[in-house]
Amino acid sequence: MSHSMIPGVEFIDNTNQRTPCVLVLDASGSMAGEPLAQLNAGLEVFADELKNDELAALRVQVMVIAVGGHEDVQILQPWTDAIDFQPPSIQASGMTPLGQGMDVALDEVRSQKAVYDANGISSTRPWVIMISDGSPNDFGWEEAASRCRQEEADKRVVVFPIGTEGANFDALGQFSNKTPKKLKGLQFRELFIWLSRSMSTVSASVPGDKVRLPDTDSWAAVEI
Amino acid sequence: MRFQSVGACATGTSHTEREQPCQDAFEIVDRVHGSVACVCDGAGSAAKSEIGARTLARQVAQQLSRNIEGLVSDPTAQAQVEDAIQIARNKLSSEGELADYHATLCGVVLTAHGTLVFHLGDGLIFGINPDDWSDYLVSEPENGAFVETTYFFTLPGWRQHLRVFCAPAQYRSWFLMSDGAASFAAKNSPWRPELNFLQPIHNYLRTTYQTQAEEALLGTLSDPRSHRITTDDKTLVWLHRAP
Questions:
Q1: Left, alpha or beta for A68 (phi > 0: left; psi -120 to 50: alpha)?
Q2: Is residue A199 domain-resident?
Q3: Is the terminal CB of chain B with fewer CB neighbours within 10 Å at N or C?
């Protein structure tokens, strides 16, 4: 049914809303070769998919943190709007200090929330996606994991631990109150398509909405 | 014609695409001495929130319309608003779990002597002096730390989040809106009217017959440009009192 329109109205997007997403990526030596190639390709897909969504491109903000690599923990991509997100290329080497990486992620999430608040920007609950093929091996990682669970229980953040074949799922599972997901093979591309669609859904969500996310069948194994 | 009122509600694409009902609702009751209007936004997380929103809007507007003229100066006005909400709660709790009916509430009682404003949760209310649009009042949305959270009439501590105040008679034009409509009908930080949207609406509705005005307001809220800004339901109610 078509309706007449009131003449002269202008539609200006005043939502001023952000959906923060941090990727904590395992760049330890064991990721070298095909796993890292697929992860990097997945990041390219993630960036493209977000940019193709009109709302998500402007509302989602991305940060990328590498653990391992040439430094223990490195912010490869500081907070940026999805529309400006240029995926970094991850280089593999070193250990797997996931505890330190997640601590940095939580600190950054908290700082960014303060920036939003100071500038009158509303935001959805931040997501932290942790991807690893192994096990945290930094001193005190259990404390960081405990902090993650507490912040999740306090509804300050949502943590998604994701492991590839051979990852220590018992350890990864300690970083969240949810069960960790296991990646099918090296289907990083499918994982990042799911993530971008989930981010699109969340970025368009409204107060009080319980968001229905796309299913994870395309990339997650049923059992871990 | 001393009092005018027009309302419309457009279902958001997030609901039409899933063939879900609109979860916003509004109710307007016009009387000789004034008008009562309520805009309610049902929570997406609640199973029957469209019923909650519909029931809340209707019950509160109907209850408060019984004593429009005296309400603004009545010291028991807040208690009367609370009683009206409680009636909606009682009705719904007799039909199921209250948590299935989560909804927010924006409402006003517009009279010649002033306006009673009541607000619970998010949504937005502007009271405007139409002789000087820089002179306006705002009842802001109440959210938690993140935008996904707000407060509903169905929660145990709802009275703590109910805000009630009286506005002077100079504010003769009122806009009530759900958060979906607020995304383009209001600026934020601080909240203030988006004049490029609200002034043309005000000017048009003042001079247009009721049926045509309602259709045009619905057509405007359903414009594809609004869907590019938000996929949420969008409700806007306009009330106006001639001098």
A1: left
A2: yes
A3: N
ipTM of model: 0.89
In a domain, A12, yes or no: no
> Which residue in B143, B196, B223 is closest to A12 by CB distance?
B196
> Which domain covers residue A68, as residue numbers?
18-203
3-state secondary structure of A164: coil
- List the single residue in A14, A122, A125 with the smallest CB-CB distance to B184: A14
Is position A32 within any domain? Answer: yes
Chain A residues in contact with chain B using a Cβ-Cβ cutoff of 8 Å: 2-17, 54-55, 113, 119-125, 155-156, 204-211
Name the 3-class secondary structure at A121.
coil
- Tell me whether residues B148 and A125 touch, CB distance under 8 A: yes
Q: What is the CATH number of the domain that holds B110?
A: 3.60.40.10
Helix (H, G, I), strand (E, B), or coil: what is residue B216? Answer: helix
Cβ-contact A209, B44 below 8 angstroms: yes
Residue B180 in contact with residue A206, Cβ under 8 Å? yes
Total beta-carbon pairs less than 8 A apart between chain A and chain B? 133
Structural domain for B56, as ranges: 3-241
What CATH number did the domain enclosing A141 receive?
A: 3.40.50.410
Average pLDDT over residues B219-241: 92
pTM of structure: 0.80
How many separate domains does chain A show? 1
- What's the mean pLDDT in A133-152? 93
CB contact (8 A) between residue A11 and residue B186: no
- Say how many domains are in chain B: 1
Residue B190 one-letter amino acid: P
Distance CA A5, CA B62 (A): 30
Distance CA B241, CA B169 (A): 9
